[in-house]
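Posting here for the record, re: magnesium ion.
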Amino acid sequence: MSEIKLTESAPTEDNGEEKDWAAAKAHFDNLKTKIPRPPKPRYAVTIAVSSRTLFNMVKERKVYEDEGLEKYVAYQMEHESEPLMPGVAFPFVQALMNVNSRLRQLYPDSEELFDIVLMTNNHAQVGVRLINSINHYDLTIERFCMTGGESPIGYLKAYMTNLYLSKNSDKVMEAIEEGIAAATMFAVDTDNELSKTQLRVAFDGDAVLFSDESEIIVKQHGLDTFFDHEKEFVNKPLAQGPLKCFLEALGKLQRKFIAKNERLNCPIRTFLVTARSAASCGARVLKTLRSWGLEIDEALFLAGAPKGPLLEKIKPHIFFDDQMFHIEGAQQMGTISAHVPYGIGQKYHKGKLIEQPPKKE
Ligand SMILES: [Mg+2]
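Prediction output follows.
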């Protein structure tokens, strides 16, 4: 479980594909529209969100579960002019849009932007309500994947997805196994006022940005062995975890602001929120990030203290963690959290080994 595949790097220039894109660009330029053209997946930071994370569809889902597909589609069509309520990933997506508008001001011709793809296995007729809702909130989401219940993995790869957010943990797990950064989101009641001008993203360290190799030692041999191990290997970078590539993508966009002297006014801020303690096992984490050439704006070492109260102060648009008890603690204090189902932590709850459900075929 600790081994994950590396995300495939951009394919080498393919003439056929290049010609297709050039033709698409020429066609779009001819249309004389003010709507920005979606960027090429190769340059974009692509975020795939499911319709149930972008919008709150709890009521609609209930109609589907209680009354079946036909009634559900009819309900959605009847309410098609009524915008869906924002869902758990909505503030995050809105913050991405804000970063895009800042990028477009600084680099009008660049395709290095966030691109949002809506993944849905909804019936095509429900698409009208989704489109109306997207337009109602003035979101720029031009790419839709109507997967018709099939696995989204093929589409995620085709779009070179940098992050996939869903409510379905089986699909998320499948994506992580294929080397795609992904996380499961849950509904959260929050009155937290989130920044309108800055995208704030918080990451756990072990088994999120990094592999679970150190976590395995904590779980199997205890903290003292772990401290000794981290001291011994302080100069050996940790292997990468499932969300490393997403941090890298954020860093790529951050550097575009820094290049224009906007470091202090950068609309992206990243946080490492780890249960590690700084003095006894923090150095390896910082040295690993340095060896990757990645910066994190703020690193918080909690030495086992709960993460909720600190996250309440940080107010991230999204917080990633591999351990459910950290997610639950964060959610109780109103933080929008996303679970990364990866690594040895999935086999434990609050330090105790738990029974694994049988793996689905
Ligand atoms: Mg962790």
